[in-house]
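Quick check before the chapter quiz. The format below is the same one you will see on the exam, so make sure you can read both the input and the output lines.
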Amino acid sequence: MNQGPNPEAVGRVAAEHLGPLLYALEVCATAMDDADRDQDSRYYRALADLLAEAGGKVAAGHET
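Here is the expected output.
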């Protein structure tokens, strides 16, 4: 019986593929910008920022 996501496994996959995941999220955010879907764009960029922070990286274009 499936007990839901395995946080350790999810974290391992995210860590192994962090760069492509961050890129894909930025592509989604840019597409949302182009479609005037600002709330969706902010969501994808916030998600990328969370993943980047957890992985010890700065998301593209989000340096402070």
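If your answer matched, good. The chain has one domain: 20-64.
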